[in-house]
Amino acid sequence: MRPLHASWLAVTPEPWKNGGGVTRTLSVDAAQQPPRWRVSVADIDRDGPYSRYPGYDRVSVVLSGGDVELVEDVADAERITLAPGVATAFAGDAAFKSHLLNGPVRVLNLFVLRGAAAASVVCVGGGKAAVEAGGLTQDGVATHTLRIIVAAQAGRLIHAAEAGVVLAAGDYIVGPSCGIDARQAFAPAQPTARNGVAAAVLDVRVPAPAAV
């Protein structure tokens, strides 16, 4: 598979139905319907409902802006805080309302279909602990891993087949993971600001195609 190198700024934005923001889809599973995974970047301008995705697990990373509080629209509501530079996992089944605590934000979103895909997300320059989402129904099945690196600031790829490739802020690259540690996949050109993130590294595992 030849890696895809593009900029999310060149992706056509899709307006939300409630007018509260826009979404740019960076990459989506084209092999199955419903898709087993999807990666997008959302610009959120105001408080409002967060779309439900029943059956999916989500991981969100605030790339720019402040905290976002998600409050479930039920009694004894669950509250989740999305913080800059931190990958946060939560179920897509719940009906959340979002509250922007410090103005507009840009958020990276990963969706994985429970039982059909598994994923991990690492924030380079931010909270570096890997966050897991989804899961495969069958243990021991051969898998294929796709790696998506989304750059919030300029830097270059390291320890990979594409080592030395420069990513500008807003660039992303999609390709095989090559088994390289996600924490060592990207080197920012400048030190990352406090409470910021240089890049998010997403590894998505799905069952390998059957041999024919």
TrEMBL record:
Pfam families: HutD. It comes from the Bacteria. Gene3D superfamilies: Jelly Rolls. PANTHER family: PROTEIN VES. This is HutD family protein. It comes from Achromobacter spanius.
